[in-house]
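Predict structure. Chain length: 301.
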Amino acid sequence: MAISASGYLRIAATDVDAWMDFGTGVLGLMDAAREDSAGARFLRMDDHPFRFMIEPGSEDKLLATGLEFPGEAAWQSTLDALQAAGHTVEKGADDEAQRRCVTAFATTTDPAGNTLELYWGRKLDYTPLASPVGIDSFVTTFQQTGDLGFGHLVLPAPDIDATTAFYTELIGTGVTDILYPPGLDGLKINFMHANNPRQHSLALFSGPHPLGVVHIMVEVETMDEVGRMMDRAKAAGSHFLATLGRHVNDNMCSAYILAPGGIAVEYGYDGLLIDWENHVTTVSTEGDLWGHEYSFPGVND
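Prediction complete.
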């Protein structure tokens, strides 16, 4: 198991200010107030210097996923394996590593064309989290096991078998659950875990997505925080992609809302933590125990 967690995301936004207002005022994340020559803004949720880099762009989409490695040896071993398998790997310049607050990183793409930034040695910021809406903490660590990452994300992967093999055989993830969503004949989602107890840090959806990401998830400590987010989202006029519900495979109780530009954000509580030494990969044919009624803009209107 090579990767430790899904560490950060780089997101392009046509309206950076609107994304920041959403991130702070609805999600409750902290404006990291970092300087950036390219005009990016940064959102914090713990002692990492940022978890989301919001960059000015001509379209709204996910630019890159930052995957965290436990140290230089595991990182370099993975880069070597990728190159030996014929994948292009480009090490990042020192100034770009500094911008990401990492010791070193390298860029590659998976078989579906998703851009990955593989890094080690995150430089932490111990300034206490100051959520503008009063959230005490987000679920990003667990007892002595360390970093759980920012949450999880689901990436599009039309060639899901080749893409899953890339992550399991080269990047270093394990398949937790395979979901065949009801009503989506022929499609499936492979949920994959990193070297931490979170039920999945990354998942692959066997179809395309125009924004380069199906959804991202952040987790809070209480059900009340989910409810308060829903109140803030309603007041802000955010579109609810899915009502409150609880998933079957990871037990997450959550609601889905759309960020400015259309990226879906799952805001959850009570996600499952797993002992991987005793876990057996499962297959699910139902997505939810209850709730999660979906409303897709332009489809359910």
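Summary: The two ends are 44 Å apart (CA to CA).
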